[in-house]
Design brief:
Layout lengths: L21 E11 L2 H14 L9 E4 L5 E10 L2 H13 L3 E4 L1
Antiparallel strand pairs: 1-3, 1-4, 2-3
Length: about 100
């Protein structure tokens, strides 16, 4: 009897598995441009990923300056950490997308 818990459809590749802790795990947040929103994102990172390196944060403004993409790298410690981080980021009305 097989103990395989593969839930992928036949012929479909399995989703990649993340091994924790996972250093340099990238997260990209897109939201309304502004210092207040940037500070919100940094505060969330410090709460959920203490010790992340703010020097590795990248910011890219949209063409018209209305939105910004903020990319940062954390050491992901587990699924619970990533879910909590994503949920808090998405709860802000200025957040448009979290990847």
């Amino acid at each position: 009897m097989s103990n395989n818990s593969n839930t992928s459809a036949p012929g479909q590749p399995e989703p990649p598995k993340i091994e924790f802790p996972c250093p340099d795990y990238p997260i990209k947040v897109m939201g309304e441009a502004g210092d207040e929103y940037y500070q919100f994102v940094i505060d969330v990172m410090q709460r959920h990923a203490p010790g992340f390196d703010p020097a590795k944060v990248g910011i890219k403004e949209s063409r018209n300056g209305s939105f910004q993409s903020i990319t940062f790298f954390i050491t992901a410690t587990g699924v619970d950490q990533l879910e909590a981080l994503h949920n808090e980021l998405r709860a802000n009305s200025k957040t448009k997308m979290v990847l």
